[in-house]
Amino acid sequence: MSNGIHIQTQGLSKNFGPVVALKDLNLVVRKGSVFGYLGPNGAGKTTTVRILSGLLKPTAGNATVCGYNVHTERNAIKSVTGLLPESPGLYSKLSAVEFLEFIGALNNLSGESLHRRIDSLLGILGLEGRQNDLLESYSSGMKQKVLVASTVLHEPALVFLDEPTSRLDPAASVLVKEIILAMAKETDTTFFICTHMTDFAEDVCEVIGILNQGILTTLGAPNEIIEQMGGRDLEDAYLKIVGGEIDRETLLSWRQ
Q1: In b/e form, how buried is each residue of 195-234, taking b as 16+ CB within 10 angstroms?
Q2: Cβ(194)–Cβ(162) under 8 Å?
Q3: What is the DSSP letter of 232?
Q4: CA–CA separation, 77 vs 155, rounded Å?
Q5: With CB atoms counted within 10 Å of each terminal CB, which end of the chain scores lower, N or C?
Q6: In 10 A of CB 165, how many CB atoms?
Q7: Per-residue pLDDT, 1
Q8: What span, in angstroms and rounded, lies between the C-alpha atoms of 32 and 188?
Q9: How much is the pTM?
């Protein structure tokens, strides 16, 4: 973890046969920062996260995560990072407490310290009254809260979040936002967040990278990107970059 850098990539690339999912990614993410990764579906965001979290080997290039090499030290990367994928799994026949105890055991946590963390996280997330109910009885938003708790339970140095506010109502989204900001500030936890929610990214992220067709096309602070693109907000700037601006006249042309 040298020089206060948690992620550093050089020419990182991934091909799936003839399909180029990620091409020549050069990126630096500093310790304790909140980095936002935006891009259309299929742009290569999840592929990037899978490589950086030790789940997938790159085709070319190199990267270090918390000082560990993605080619040779993938198990070490997994031990110091947390990952909330876009479509995670839950054991529906366990209660929230039992599920978090299981996640704790996978990370060599047990006893009083583990239960203090579990109680604290469930309290923060407003689940203390339902902690012993089976997860199959939870709403999708409640399940997402438990998954957020499981991702940060072992106090990882770096957390990867893939669409962390999906299935959450606005109040719960704000809560997740506050948890991210508090952990980044108080514990120097680094967050790497893939999201389609430009308003969420604008509020939370210090630096944003925009990926399009496997290529990092834009990198900077939200206000810099907005100013550079002459946008009203980050959503407007993002649409200008990825070519998704809406022509309302064309949209309603069917009525003519």
Answers
A1: bebbebbbbbbebbbbbbebebebbeebeebbeebebeeb
A2: yes
A3: S
A4: 14
A5: C
A6: 23
A7: 46
A8: 4
A9: 0.88
